[in-house]
Specification:
3-stranded antiparallel sheet; D-Maltodextrin-Binding Protein, domain 2; Dipeptide-binding Protein, domain 1; alpha+beta
């Protein structure tokens, strides 16, 4: 079996392999800029990994066909808990999920309630650094992390086991307090795997005595990092990290019926020129491209571009580190404000942050990098989530105001001495490169002593440096975990959120607003709190949002992608392809 898989992979990466595979009507080849980091549901938190896993693993519920009459639909759960069917308690805290009896994992074993319970508990208690566990830790146990200050444990297995339990063929989840976004979380994230399979491969056995050994492990230590056993329409056939290849094969015994496609190949190709060429030549059915490449596709009869797709992500964002870890980093230069570097707390000065914000030419970035297809983002919570028309005045491009802020910074020392700083970003992101180059140019125009050096970094090294807090200034984009304002507010403004934690940004007032808003079911009351959070963002400016691009997909003309499906809401949220509903002619 191993030899057969190896031979098929070598065939696919040969010069003729992808072309022949891509033109076959039962094989789909997707070329991506980055490869996956992990397929472990309790550890993955990057879009590339999620885009693959969404086709392998499945959730309990999915988004329904009508946001008012049917906001959610059953999936691995046989019913959606509601007050009317008695599966949701009157106080909104206890959810009961009857589990389908006709579903099997890829290894042939039958899905049962204990698998779901184990998957939820493992997701909670793994708490992988930089991982997704906070999504369930907050509503179920009331904390964003299993550990507090100094790394001390602040949750217990007993509390988790009481909150997530089985009653016959049902999984019963008790929340710390009512949370209107709980079903959104479950519908947005695939996390159900086979308990017996995971344990057989060296993962946590589900017992109280052993859970701490698997708590906060680095992602790389997962025994199922590049293995998978879900219930979805595609089975993980093989991975080849050296060649950047992942091959999925059709699950012929899928509980909803087999897909039209037999094989899906993910191919990591870091060069955009090469990805574009593969799509044009028919060596790929889909290519991840920047909008600047669309000019080269104009008039191509065999390629179609699905444009004006909703984009839930913030787009490229400038993040400031309020207290850089100086150990093992050269990013600070001299480490002093002497024109040859910056001190670790350089960006803790609000005048420095305001200077950078006013120095960025938002319109030029939109017109050049996004080809005019982008909108300004004025704060952490998207305006369209509450149909907001106006908000606090944005930080507009203004060299004069930027210079004024820099003259105030550090009591005038920034203007007098100048600085040399480095700005980091994922090396495959053309948009981030354009933003960094533009900002560097504008800063030099304000003062020749302002030296900003763009530093493209391979993604793995970039993420490692982020976790170690060694990057003073970086560009990244945030996509929500689930379609609720809390996902943005928490991860962008709360001190325990993904980015503030890495930025060492802690604002007690922001934490209080985010925590209070999450616990409310009254949308009008939540909106008022998020308005206050937007105002606080403008005051503190922990990040600078550039422009949110309009999403698009470039596909071969023979690919047919239906517009509606029960679960397309989740794929749309993460801008991923749902291969179960794709076919080719």
């Amino acid at each position: 079996m191993a030899m057969r898989i190896l031979v098929s992979v070598v065939f696919l990466v040969g010069l003729a392999g992808p072309a022949r595979a891509a033109t076959s009507t039962d094989t789909f080849v997707s070329v991506e800029a980055d490869g996956i980091l992990t397929l472990d549901p309790a550890a993955m938190y990057d879009l590339e990994s999620l885009s693959v896993a969404l086709n392998i693993y499945e959730p309990l519920v999915v988004y329904g066909t009508d946001p008012v009459k049917m906001p959610f639909a059953p999936f691995l759960a046989a019913e959606v808990p509601t007050g009317d069917n008695g599966l949701l308690s009157a106080d909104g805290r206890v959810y009961s999920f009857p589990i389908r009896k006709d579903v099997r994992f890829h290894d042939g074993s039958q899905l049962c309630a204990e698998d779901v319970r184990y998957s939820l508990l493992r997701f909670l208690l793994a708490d992988t650094p930089g991982g997704p566990s906070a999504m369930l830790l907050e509503p179920i146990l009331g904390v964003p992390s299993t550990r507090g200050k100094g790394g001390k444990l602040r949750v217990s297995y007993e509390a988790a086991a009481q909150a997530v339990r089985t009653e016959g063929d049902r999984v019963v989840v008790t929340l710390k307090k009512p949370d209107a976004s709980f079903l959104d979380i479950l519908a947005s994230w695939p996390m159900v795997l086979s308990k017996s399979w995971a344990v057989a491969h060296g993962e946590w056995d589900g017992a109280e005595a052993s859970w701490t050994r698997f708590n906060q492990r680095p992602m790389e230590e997962s025994d199922i990092r590049f293995l998978a056993n879900g219930t979805g329409p595609f089975v993980l056939d093989s991975t080849d990290s050296a060649r950047g290849l992942i091959v999925l094969r059709r699950n012929d015994f899928y509980w909803r019926g087999p897909a039209a496609l037999k094989t899906v190949v993910f191919h990591e190709v870091r060069s955009e020129v090469m990805r574009l060429a593969m799509l044009q030549a028919g060596d790929a059915d889909y290519a991840q491209l920047s909008r600047s490449s669309l000019r080269d596709l104009a008039g191509s009869p065999d390629i179609k571009v699905l444009d004006d797709i909703d984009n839930w992500a913030t787009g490229q964002t400038l993040f400031f580190n309020f207290g850089v870890n100086p150990v093992g980093t050269r990013a600070l230069g001299s480490g002093r404000l002497d024109g040859k570097g910056i001190p670790p707390d350089f960006f803790a000065d609000p005048d420095v942050r305001r200077g950078f914000a006013h120095a960025f030419n938002f319109e030029m970035f939109r017109d050049y990098a996004l080809r005019g297809k982008g909108v300004r983002v004025f704060g952490p919570v998207p305006f369209d989530m509450f149909d907001w028309k106006t908000g606090p005045a944005p930080y507009d491009y203004d060299r004069g105001r930027a210079a004024e802020s820099f003259r105030k910074a550090a009591g005038g020392k920034v203007w007098a001495k100048g600085f040399r700083a480095e700005i980091f970003f994922d090396a495959v992101s053309g948009e981030a490169q354009a933003a960094a180059d533009l900002l560097a140019s504008e800063l030099r125009a304000i003062s020749p002593s302002f030296d900003l050096v763009p530093k493209p970094v391979p993604r793995n090294a970039f993420l490692k440096a982020l976790e170690e807090r060694r990057l003073p200034l970086f560009i990244a984009s945030f996509g929500p975990d689930f379609p609720d304002p809390h996902s943005y507010a928490f991860n962008l403004m709360h001190s325990a959120g993904f980015f503030p934690r890495l930025q060492r940004y802690a604002q007690p007032q922001a934490d209080a607003l985010v925590d209070e808003a999450r616990g409310l079911s009254d949308e009008a009351a939540r909106e008022k709190l998020y308005r206050k959070l937007q105002d606080l963002y403008q005051q503190d400016l922990p990040q600078v949002y550039l422009c949110r691009p309009v999403a698009f997909k470039a596909l071969r003309g023979g690919v047919v992608a239906p517009k509606t499906d029960l679960w397309l809401g989740s794929f749309s949220l993460h801008n991923a392809l749902y291969f179960y509903r794709l076919h080719k002619h």
